[in-house]
Specification:
Layout: H1 2-12, E1 19-21, H2 29-36, E2 43-51, E3 54-61, E4 65-66, H3 68-75, H4 84-91, E5 108-112, E6 120-123, E7 130-132, E8 134-135, H5 136-143, E9 147-149, E10 152-153
Parallel strand pairs: 2-6, 3-5, 5-9
Antiparallel strand pairs: 1-7, 2-3, 4-10, 6-8
């Protein structure tokens, strides 16, 4: 099970006690914010795309939206999200629990600048009813991100 894989990963780095599981769904930004009692923009959503060399993940703030021209400038192609079946097969987590931890080999991870507004954020932990609070240095380290990118736009 996907969440078990991520929990094992966090156990290996000594953070298993910070994984939170809920009796309610946290599968969307809105539901995760309710479950955690925080603003939706602090949810670190993980978006799955097909990149030039295979699947790629962009972790962005909950209120951010992909900016297609910025995405194309960064990655050299139009933003095409993976289908739920593709996400599970290629990334290793189900939609609603996608996160940059415990993912399949060959998946590139990028962190979007929209997250830099916050001291801590809440990404999922492999299921639609889980999360972990991480500061940005921890998110960078444990996600094995390749780089910070600017591919999103924020609401006005």
């Amino acid at each position: 099970m996907s969440i078990e894989r991520v929990k094992e990963y966090f156990k290996s780095v000594g953070l298993e006690d910070r994984v939170r599981e809920f009796d309610v769904s946290s599968a969307t930004v809105e539901l995760a914010a309710l479950a955690l009692g925080c603003e939706g923009k602090r949810i670190a959503k993980t978006l799955s795309f097909m990149g030039p060399a295979g699947p790629l993940l962009v972790v962005a703030a909950g209120d951010a939206r992909i900016d297609n021209p910025k995405f194309k400038a960064q990655f050299g192609l139009k933003a095409k999200m993976l289908t739920p079946d593709e996400v599970l097969e290629l990334v290793g987590h189900p939609v609603g629990g996608v996160c940059p931890f415990g993912i399949n080999e060959g998946v590139d991870v990028y962190l979007d600048e929209s997250l830099r507004r916050f001291t801590t954020v809440f990404p999922a932990v492999g299921s639609g009813s889980s999360a972990i609070e991480l500061d940005l240095d921890e998110l960078w380290k444990y996600s094995n991100a390749l780089e910070w990118v600017d591919v999103c736009k924020l609401p006005e």
